[in-house]
Amino acid sequence: MTLSVWQRALGDRVNELSPGLRDYFALLPAGHVGRGTGLYEIAGSRHRWLWPVLSFLAWRRILFPEYERNVPFTVTNTPTPGGELRGRRTFAFAKTERVMLDEMRIVDGELHDFLGRRGGLEVELGLTVADGALHMTSTRLWIHLGALRIPLPRVATLRLTEQSVATGQRVDVTLSSPLVGEWFVYRGTFSYEV
Question: Using CA atoms, how far apart are residues 75 and 66, in angstroms rounded to an integer?
């Protein structure tokens, strides 16, 4: 495997990324992991009525119900032998720690993110590059129940932007729905090294 999952998904568009992002999305050397540490200016959902659902998703290691500012976090990216990339994001809230798990894979030529324990929620991501930044938008969703892969209606849209900044890298993630608007967010900066 000579290309990362990101390089395979982006193709020639990878050359449009800023140099810092090209390094971040490059193939990790065998036996190595990528580690980032930083601070989210804001993380979580301000909609308390969603917290019961978000608590269940926290148990599945997909989302979480907390909502705070200035949340320290770490991210660890680990390549798999098959060329996928596993991510573990740890959020250090004031009273608890939350973990989000995912694995990036190429499915039918498109980038798919398998979220949570055992990758139970699958999200197809559309990718664009603008001004050196990578923008991702969810296009389709599935839930995995045992061997079943069940398509879900598009009840929410994920938007994610990664860009290089003077202090390292900035990430901006939002989940929104037509009737609710923005209902989950995390955004901040981090430094990253292999």
Answer: 18
pTM: 0.94
- What DSSP character marks residue 56? H
> In whole numbers, what is the pLDDT of the chain averaged over residues?
95
CATH of 5-193, one of 3.90.1150.10, 3.40.50.300, 3.20.20.80, 2.40.128.20: 2.40.128.20
Report the candidate in 182, 189, 192 with the shortest Cα–Cα distance to residue 41: 189
What is residue 1's predicted lDDT score, i.e. its pLDDT? 55
pLDDT for residue 98 is more than 60: yes
Q: Would you call 39 exposed, middle or buried from its count of C-beta atoms within 10 A (0-12, 13-18, 19+)?
A: middle
**CA gap 50, 57 in Å, rounded:** 11
Q: Give buried/exposed letters for 114-143 (b at 16+ CB in 10 A, else e).
A: bbbeebbbbbbbebebeeebbbbebeebbe
Cβ atoms < 10 Å from Cβ of 47: 16
User: In 3-state terms, what secondary structure has residue 112?
Assistant: strand
Convert the pLDDT of each residue in 173-186 to its tens digit. 999 999 899 999 99
pLDDT value of position 82: 83
Q: Which of 103, 114, 72, 116 is nearest to 90 (CA)?
A: 72
Rounded distance between C-alpha atoms, residue 26 and residue 114, angstroms: 20
